[in-house]
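Trying the structure run again after the queue cleared.
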Amino acid sequence: MTYVVDEKCIKCKHMDCVEVCPVDCFYEGENMLVIHPDECIDCGVCEPECPVDAILSDTEDGAEKWAEINRKFAEVWPNISEKKTPPADAEKWQNVEGKFEKYFSDKPGE
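Done. Tokens:
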């Protein structure tokens, strides 16, 4: 079991999860984060830290797609180990549906 980040993170990217991760398994894209499944130790401390509930166990229904996306982009995006400032308009995107199809960027973070 591991944890994955889903589309709720897109354009929100609060990064509270990064601050508590003991193994630095988060990777930063332009507008979302992902978890490297081979580095995650399944401790679960990140899940309750996410204010938009974008982190879930890979055993939950619908998580398969996100497990693949997290693995793919954790291989190419830069590792992030410190919380940065979230986007200024993050709250505006919190409850938007269908963000992956409309807004996902495969570009790496800074």
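Strands lie at 3-5, 26-28, 33-35, 55-57, 79-80. Worth checking whether this holds up in the mutant runs.
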